[in-house]
Amino acid sequence: MQIDRRSALLGTAAVAAAGLPSLSPAHAQSADNGITGVYRYKFGDGEIVQVFDGSRTFPMPDNFVANVAKDQAAAAYEALYMPKGQVTITFSPLVVKSGGKTIAIDTGNGLGAFAATKGAVGNMRANMAAAGIDPKSVDIVLISHFHGDHIGGLKNADGTPAFPNAEIKVPAAEWAFWTDEANQSKANAANKGNFANVKKTFDGLTPTQFEAGKEVAPGIVSVATPGHTPGHVSFILGAGSKQLAVQGDVTNHPGVFMRNPGWHLMFDNEAAVAEATRRKLYDMALADKMPVIGYHFPFPSAGYVEKDGTGYRLVQVHALT
């Protein structure tokens, strides 16, 4: 591990983080037999479980890539064999078992969205059940940022807590931004409506706020990766030379936004900051050969970063070495 380089991004707390066993590729497992939407990796004495929440396909909005002509953006998606003029976005939360704790990282779109989309999204709970994970057994829920596809699963369809025994931990900077309606003037058009959703989602919940750069669960360190939202964080799992980045929404589909890191997604509230964050994280992952799990990467959503011209590409894998 290159401590100086990582310290510049993660802060000294990341170097001190301990307690999470290193990844053990010899024990990586493939998808559960007969189960779609569950993928497991052994994680030292613990485990990473990807639980697919679903996907949505929709016509590309005119400003989906804010700084690129729509025809050019559409061609990039068509080159990935998506239907002409359409965009597909996938959603993949995680459950991590480490240090005697069961930890969810983001919560998917939620059961309300499951009903509204006729099962297209909101499948996290069903796939948790298929994986044998009871929501009541979850000790900690870590939230990367406050967009609805990440916090929607905090509550059941009737508004009761989905993880009744869990401590919900959120980035302090994210909480400060979205809970102050005066900040609506600082939000771009795609984000202005999110303030009401945040208020509704967290009503009745009492989350714990954390500062980026701190250990937030056994062996899991939060990393400030702003731009997509002001308080957006990613997470570094593991210790020593074997670490893994869980990158939240640093990028959307890797086939488009990793290859074109200068393209600005309409949902990135501070596009230039998001671009700088993207390059910084992927340069680190590339230099250290650190695998990355992406919330919006095609499922199962782990891979390694390689340089591709002036951008990057993701080499997806089914084992983490």
UniProtKB/TrEMBL annotation:
> Per the database record, which ranges form the Metallo-beta-lactamase domain?
89-296
Output the SUPFAM superfamilies linked to this UniProt entry: Metallo-hydrolase/oxidoreductase
Write the protein's name. MBL fold metallo-hydrolase
Which family does this protein fall into?
Belongs to the metallo-beta-lactamase superfamily.
Under Gene Ontology molecular function, one entry of this record is:
metal ion binding
Keywords noted in UniProt: Hydrolase, Metal-binding, Signal, Zinc
Where in the sequence is the signal peptide annotated? Answer: 1-28
Any one Pfam family match given in the protein's UniProt record, by short name: Lactamase_B
Species classification: Bacteria, Pseudomonadati, Pseudomonadota, Alphaproteobacteria, Hyphomicrobiales
Question: By its UniProt entry, which SMART domains does this protein fall under?
Answer: Lactamase_B
